[in-house]
Amino acid sequence: MRKVVMAITACVFFLQTPVMAQDGEREPGFGLRGGVSFFNWGGQDISSTGYTNRTGFHAGIYGNSFVGERFSVEPGIYYAVKGTQNDDLVNSRAVLNYLDAPLLFRLYATDAVNLFFGPQASLLLDSSFEADALGNTYDWETDTISDFDAAVVVGLGYNPSSGLNFQVGYDFGLVPVFKDSDADVFNRGFKVAVGISF
């Protein structure tokens, strides 16, 4: 719990520290964003059959500060549900809840259309495995998942001046999912989101 509080405090402080805009073009701001996620486990040690995308969601807050006319910096903090599922007899699945802290750099091709990329640090909040059998859902907590994750985030955004914005991104996980293991297994997935800037 202490780690979660420290991470939230650091991210809130970061969001409140604006990057100075040049030429007075656009003022720093913040916003709310959320959407649907489609995550799976990737890596050489994952079988090509059986594992499929698990649908989850993410929601949080971000700050956005322009550095020049076509470039902005966007830190954020999000609650994100990830994991994977297997189309076996009991529809087994892993449910992983994270606190994601991306730092995105946006390059604007037009006043609204932009490409974004950047690093993301994630703190595991809780993890469990679930299965369905005899009309019931059974779940059990696990401590085999790494407490920390890191990823590279890339995507395409549409941020018009109205404040409403849309984006599609991909998280390319870099830290193995399982701790104390040499297994080549990573969190990988797409996020589709809508946000509003203030």
Automatic annotation (TrEMBL):
It comes from the Bacteria. Residues 1-21 form the signal peptide. Residues 10-198 form the Outer membrane protein beta-barrel domain. This is Outer membrane protein beta-barrel domain-containing protein. It holds the Pfam family OMP_b-brl. Keywords: Signal.
